[in-house]
Amino acid sequence: MKKPIVFLNILLLAVFGCQKPGPVTVDTGTSDDVLDVSTVVPADSAATFGQIDSLGILPADAATFSGFLLVNSVTYDNGPADTNVVKQYAAVYFADRSHPVVDGRGRVLGYYGMNITPTLTGSKIMVNSLPMVRIPYRLRLPGVTGDSICGYLYVRNLAGTHHPNTAFLWNVPAGDQGSVAGFTVQIVTPEDVHVLAPEGGSVLSRNSPITLRWAGKGDLNIVVSVIDPVTQATTAVMKLHPKSGTGKAVLDARVLALLPPGRHFVFSFIAANRQEITVGQYQGKVLVQAAAVYNIYVELK
Questions:
Q1: Where are the beta strands (DSSP E) in 115-220?
Q2: pTM for the structure as a whole
Q3: Which of 147, 183, 229, 301 would give a disulfide with 138, using CB separation of 3.0 to 4.6 Å?
Q4: In the beta sheet, which residues pair with residue 51?
Q5: What does the pLDDT look like over 27-82, one tens digit per residue?
């Protein structure tokens, strides 16, 4: 069920409006296996959410931030029968909150991506002196065949230049008509994450505990998403936060019972360095994040 993505089609879909109840602490018996478990409930079932397994953006961030500057190293693991795909890229997206995308009933599905590069000077957004490419920002709208172009986003393939513990510096020029002021910001990439269990492509039982093991330093979040068997789109349904740094956690039946009845799931292990900034002339908070994401695709029966 892996979804290899063509680089230029990495979409910063409109991630917004996620709500979650207070965390439920699940103690499976030892201090090494304590998890904070939060279910992820969309505020509006008509909303189009971003693909967490591609972006590494936590659901709650969508409700908080309007702009994103991302540096990601993403691994898609569907087991030894399917070669792992690794994507390393930078992406920049600024939502135009005055230009929503709405459906036929007036519900907001997303926002147009702003053109934040100046037309007259031709200056580009640079990340570590590499120019970013402006591409169409696409949304899949209900009742519309194919994707709809809704403004712009900016991307840069970082294959061969992305490494752990490396500083990435953005230089963003001032945009046209006062859209954004020029600014620079830097973020350092985290250690890589490698998942040891479960194995990609595993078929697991909902009635038995599932052991999660990983290698990597730092704080970690694990987002569980259900995969639509037809569209292959992923929808986040649960966030897990291991309370210890031992690289191990156990999901027992009480946790698995919270998952929806779908069969295909992805466990996204996300380690991230992040900071919040404000940008002159832009109305909205901006998230700067460098993430290592390791996706494990499994079946639950």
A1: 126-127, 130-131, 133-140, 147-157, 167-172, 183-188, 194-197, 203-204, 210-215
A2: 0.84
A3: 147
A4: none
A5: 444 334 577 888 776 544 333 335 777 888 876 787 789 999 999 999 999 988 77
